[in-house]
Structures are given as structure tokens and as C-alpha cells.
């Protein structure tokens, strides 16, 4: 009987040992709201406590407010900082200013606050063509400033917008970066990212792609299964069943053209608005927003990756944690209302495994009982 118990114990160990997965880290973006009547309730400490309570592992701070950075100390939440676009030329032309930025936004908080990445600028290419040539030098100066401070585990990159650098998403295998931006701006940056073990950052919104093309069905954009919700890349023979994967692989193909197909990719912003700018945005609804986010989270947590990147993107940041104060003429994307109450019926955190995790707990519990009974007999 002891041999049976031993066999069951080995079986228990094999079942209970979690498999190695490549599930993507899923975070949110946050920016300090303008002065409004509820601003007192949106203190940095409250925002940090809300993120921890929602079990969100990573936050992108779009304005890198030092008070907000401090609020995440000892929370183990990974923090993604951003350098504002107007500072890019200044940091490029003056190394001491880059050091001063690091002294203000990194040195007082790291490593108590788990800062993992700094984006020098956000969609600078569309923000101002005059600023774009300064990007690489600014990134280099921030990287060197961190090294001078003996900080080596914070990567430095910049964030591009999909629509401004990838003109054609389909078929993904034929995608290339927009020229002359690709050769002049992006190629040298890819070389820098490769040398410094950093990631390529991209803002990627399937909603915008869906709105720009009448040929894309809403179900394809919302991860829905259906007879028409797919696109075939005839060059590679790959069938795409959702728009998000198709856009990610277009980015990967564009990097591959420049010889950097293995660089990690981080989706720095994505989402689906719950309200539009005007009545013409009929698909910017709370229902579609919830459908997209729920399906996106399930897709990323499955660890299935994309057809061209089986391990998937490294991180995805949902735009955004808290929506702006409700008013006409703006899109709202937030997971929470501006008064910090939840907008959606689903939980952002899967609670540690969802249905599959709970089934595994029951199964392991059953085997434990069987082993104990055998040992007692």
C-alpha cells in the first residue's frame, strides 16, 4: 500500500507543479488629472492603494509625478516612467539636464519604488517632427546618466504610435515602418535598444484601426469567434483571429525588415473607449469597451502569443486606470470612473488563475486526501 501512496504522491507533485507560462504582464496607464472638484480624493496614496487592491502588477505613469512615484514605494508594482515630449530636445542637448531629471524622478525613489523602464517621449514623431531627430541622443543621455548613478536595471526606450509608424498592417508579413521615419529615426533606435537590452514600445489601438477600415468586422476587433472574424496572410499562410495580434505581428515584421525581429515588444497603450467624441462614434460604447477588455485580458493570460511571436508581447498597458471627468467632446477609456468606482462588471485581476486555477486547487485537494488515506491504511 505504501508503494501506491508513493505513486500517488509523485502524481500529486506533477499535477501541483505549475507549468512554465509566457503570459504577458498586464498593467494600466495613469496620468494626474487636471484640478477638478474630486482632485483631493485622487491623492497619490489612494491611487497606489487602488492599484494594489486591484492586483495590478505594473503602472505606466504618463507624467512621472514624483509624488506618485513615491506612493508606489514598497508595493512591488513595476513602474514605467515617461519623459515629457517638450523635454526631449533639452535632454538631448545637455547631458547635465538628463542627470538632473534622473536625480528628481529616479534616484530618490529607486529601488524602493520598482522603476523598470523609462520612455523618453511619447509618440514624438507625430508630436513634432522637429523633435524627432533629438530622440536617440536624449535616450543615450538618460541611459548614461543612470549608469553614472550605478543604476543598471532600468531600461531606456521611447514610445511610438502604431498609426504613425506602420502605414499598412495587412498582411502583417509585408508590413514596414513608414519612410523616411524608419531609416532616419527608428533604425538607429532599434540598434540602441538591441545594445542596451531594452524593449520596443508601441501605442496600439485596435479601435482606431477598426474605425479606419470598413472591411474590418467589429467581431474581429473584439476577439469574437465567428465565420467572418478572421484574416488570412496569404504570404505566410497564417490565419489571424483578432485584430490585436495582427497589429502586433505587423510591428514585429517591420522590425524584422531592419534586422531586429527578436527585440521584446511592449504595448505601452491599448484599449477601447466607452464613449466617443461625438455621436458619430457609434462603437465607442460601454458594452464594446467591456467586451474588448475582457477578451484582451483572457487572450493575454492564455500565454498563446501571436503567430509570429509565440511568447507574445512582454507587457501590455491598458489605457487608462481612471477616466477623465465626464463631459462632452472627449473619449473616455478608464477602468474606473473619476470618482474611483468601477465601470465594469468583471475584475481586472484574474485572482490567480480563474476557472482553471480553481479546478487545479480542487484536483490537488482530492489527491492529497487520497494519499493521506493510503498512508493511514
From TrEMBL:
Any Pfam family matching the protein: Glyco_hydro_17
Keywords noted in UniProt: Glycosidase, Hydrolase, Signal
Gene3D superfamilies per the UniProt record, alphabetical: Glycosidases (3.20.20.80)
Catalyzed reactions: Hydrolysis of (1->3)-beta-D-glucosidic linkages in (1->3)-beta-D-glucans
Gene Ontology BP term (one): carbohydrate metabolic process
Signal peptide range: 1-23
Coiled coil feature spans: none
MF terms in GO: glucan endo-1,3-beta-D-glucosidase activity
Keyword Signal in annotation: yes
Enzyme class, spelled out: hydrolase
E.C. code: 3.2.1.39
InterPro entries: GH, Glyco_hydro_17, Glyco_hydro_17_plant
Family designation: Belongs to the glycosyl hydrolase 17 family.
Stated name of the protein: glucan endo-1,3-beta-D-glucosidase
Species of origin: Brassica cretica
Amino acid at each position: 500500500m505504501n508503494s501506491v501512496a508513493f505513486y500517488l504522491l509523485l502524481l500529486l507533485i506533477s499535477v501541483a507543479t505549475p507549468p512554465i507560462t509566457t503570459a504577458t504582464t498586464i498593467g494600466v496607464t495613469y496620468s494626474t488629472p487636471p484640478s477638478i472638484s474630486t482632485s483631493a480624493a485622487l491623492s497619490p496614496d489612494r491611487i497606489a492603494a487602488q492599484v494594489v487592491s486591484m492586483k495590478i502588477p505594473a503602472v505606466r505613469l504618463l507624467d512621472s509625478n514624483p509624488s506618485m512615484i513615491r506612493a508606489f514605494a514598497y508595493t512591488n508594482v513595476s513602474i514605467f516612467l515617461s519623459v515629457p515630449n517638450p523635454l526631449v530636445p533639452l535632454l538631448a542637448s545637455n547631458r547635465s539636464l538628463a542627470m538632473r531629471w534622473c536625480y528628481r524622478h529616479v534616484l530618490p525613489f529607486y529601488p524602493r519604488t520598482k522603476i523598470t523602464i523609462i520612455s523618453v517621449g511619447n509618440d514624438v514623431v507625430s508630436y513634432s517632427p522637429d523633435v524627432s531627430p533629438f530622440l536617440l541622443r536624449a535616450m543615450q543621455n538618460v541611459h548614461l546618466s543612470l549608469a553614472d548613478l550605478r543604476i543598471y536595471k532600468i531600461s531606456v526606450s521611447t514610445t511610438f504610435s502604431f498609426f504613425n509608424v506602420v502605414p499598412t498592417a495587412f498582411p502583417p508579413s509585408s508590413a514596414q515602418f513608414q519612410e523616411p521615419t524608419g531609416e532616419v529615426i527608428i533604425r538607429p533606435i532599434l540598434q540602441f535598444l538591441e545594445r542596451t537590452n531594452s524593449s520596443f514600445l508601441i501605442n496600439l489601438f485596435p479601435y482606431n484601426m477598426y474605425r479606419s477600415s470598413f472591411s474590418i468586422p467589429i467581431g474581429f476587433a473584439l476577439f469574437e469567434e465567428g465565420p467572418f472574424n478572421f484574416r488570412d496572410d496569404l504570404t505566410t499562410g497564417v490565419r489571424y483571429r483578432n485584430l490585436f495580434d495582427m497589429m502586433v505581428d505587423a510591428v514585429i515584421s517591420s522590425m524584422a525588415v531592419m534586422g531586429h525581429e527578436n527585440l521584446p515588444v511592449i504595448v505601452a497603450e491599448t484599449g477601447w473607449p466607452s464613449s466617443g467624441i461625438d455621436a458619430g462614434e457609434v462603437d465607442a460604447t460601454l458594452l464594446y469597451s467591456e467586451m474588448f477588455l475582457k477578451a484582451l485580458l483572457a487572450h493575454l493570460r492564455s500565454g498563446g502569443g501571436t503567430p509570429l511571436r509565440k511568447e507574445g508581447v512582454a507587457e501590455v498597458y491598458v489605457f487608462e486606470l481612471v477616466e477623465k471627468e465626464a463631459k462632452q467632446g472627449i473619449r473616455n477609456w478608464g477602468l474606473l470612473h473619476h470618482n474611483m468606482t468601477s465601470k465594469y462588471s468583471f475584475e481586472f485581476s484574474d485572482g490567480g488563475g480563474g476557472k482553471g486555477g480553481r479546478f487545479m486547487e480542487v484536483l490537488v485537494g482530492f489527491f492529497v486526501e487520497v494519499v493521506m488515506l493510503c498512508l493511514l491504511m
